[in-house]
Design the sequence.
């Protein structure tokens, strides 16, 4: 035997052949029992169906409130990402989008991960407290959005 006469191994399990005589174990009713909804052809019952009884997900009361549709999702930028800009650059959301640091629409927030590479003027929607202190310690300043 060598690589030229190898072939895929046979399947481990034979497919179920129903309705081929009583001695096969799956003759007559083909493993579906007698009568009833599941014995009919094309029978498929949705997972929550309880035979016409009011299903559990409809019996339980609706409860609570979610504000998820109105949640503000910030585009996060870290201080270490600003190293590509020269010192004295005015950092705006438009500049970050041009450079590919921000891809989605929406407000931008600056976080303090990393070290400041220069004195920047930052005009973003949000700046974390620690990021603000790092920028000001490096000689830059943070301006509130208009």
Sequence:
């Amino acid at each position: 035997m060598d690589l030229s006469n190898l072939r895929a191994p046979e399947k481990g399990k034979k497919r179920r052949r129903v309705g081929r005589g009583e001695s096969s174990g799956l003759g007559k009713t083909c493993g579906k029992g007698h009568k009833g909804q599941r014995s009919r052809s094309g029978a498929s019952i949705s997972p929550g169906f309880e035979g016409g009884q009011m299903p559990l997900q409809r019996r339980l009361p609706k409860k609570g409130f979610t504000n998820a549709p109105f949640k503000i999702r910030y585009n996060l930028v870290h201080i270490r990402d600003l190293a590509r800009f020269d010192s004295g650059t005015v950092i705006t959301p438009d500049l970050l989008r041009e450079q590919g640091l921000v891809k989605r629409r929406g407000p931008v927030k600056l976080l303090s991960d990393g070290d400041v590479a220069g004195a920047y003027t930052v005009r973003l929607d949000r700046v974390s407290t620690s990021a603000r202190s790092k920028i000001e310690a490096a000689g830059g300043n943070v301006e509130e959005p208009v």
Summary: The two ends are 78 Å apart (CA to CA). The beta strands are 75-78, 90-91, 108-111, 121-122, 126-127, 141-142. Residues 17-62 form one domain. The helical segments are 56-59, 93-98, 129-137.
